Amino acid sequence: METEFTPWLSLAGGVLIGLSAILLMALNGRIAGMTGIMTGIIPPFSADWPWRIAFLAGAIVAPILYLAAGGEIAYAVPVSLPLLALGGLIVGVGVYFGAGCTSGHGVCGMARFSPRSIAATVTFMIATGITVYVVRHIAGA
Description:
Blueprint (H helix, E strand, L loop, with lengths): L6 H22 L5 H6 L9 H20 L12 H17 L4 H10 L3 H24 L3
């Protein structure tokens, strides 16, 4: 599978992710980890659920607005739905045992020089590299 590298769109996306993380930390004192944000809207609701809903709504609405403005999102899923579900389950288990997700550890934790987040992000990256190698070169998907 070949992907199209889009440096300007990638830079803009990274800046927006960083800006949202900075604003959430500055205005609410909270880490922008998607898993932690989502758990606060699952009953029993967290007392601070309104900002959580707004943050998640922005993550959903932003790509829709981008598409409505004429943008294009190219993606391909090289595996079947059952393998996708299995991958989601494995990620969920990893998030639970890793005490956070890639956004919490990789974006916010590393920016704060958290040793735990640095270790978690290194683990994510190694596991990702191994998974891509296995899926593309051994399993042939």
